[in-house]
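Q: What would this complex look like in 3D?
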Amino acid sequence: DAKTTQPTSMDCAEGRAANLPCNHSTISGNEYVYWYRQIHSQGPQYIIHGLKNNETNEMASLIITEDRKSSTLILPHATLRDTAVYYCIVRVGDQFYFGTGTSLTVIP
Amino acid sequence: DAGVTQSPTHLIKTRGQHVTLRCSPISGHKSVSWYQQVLGQGPQFIFQYYEKEERGRGNFPDRFSARQFPNYSSELNVNALLLGDSALYLCASSLGGGPRETQYFGPGTRLLVL
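A: Here is my prediction, written as structure tokens for the whole assembly.
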């Protein structure tokens, strides 16, 4: 019962921006979108989250469409250490609904 | 500050046995959530506890149970283990579990059921 769909895999050249899309067409008005990443089956690492407005922090930017049915995570200058599986998550109350994620490979 | 810690890191059990996994949240965090991650899939929500009370439960059988202690640490118990229970079990903590609060994950316990 995943609430998000993401591309299975993506490549990005080192130093370029990585844009990771996510569809969450059934999201409700008070449900947050979170992004985490997971490297080598370690615990997922928090990246960013948002509700309606675009958000930016030291790691990434999150762009949420006006109808909130999709969002894009932007890593402005990808490095080799950004190679990971990126999860777009809809938070429903206390539960995080993970999808299958996007495997991002940053290429030298 | 220490992050979320989990023990053991790895565990091998046989079918029918039971297992107890442990989690210590970040200091000051009162909410703990448990997730199961099968190889190749995203984590699936099992339980959330806040102030020792169960706040949420995912779609898992009654063989899975958990509890939270007064110091906010938590245990996940799985009885009558099946081969399909082989997975990475993740614990995450947050301050109070509200919808705007970030969950911080531990490194996980990798369980193999033979």
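A: To summarize the key features: Chain B touches chain A at residues 4, 31, 33, 35, 37, 40-45, 48, 50, 55-56, 58-59, 88, 90, 92, 97, 99-100, 102-108, 110 (CB under 8 Å). Chain B is about 0% helix and 50% strand.
Q: Very helpful, thank you.
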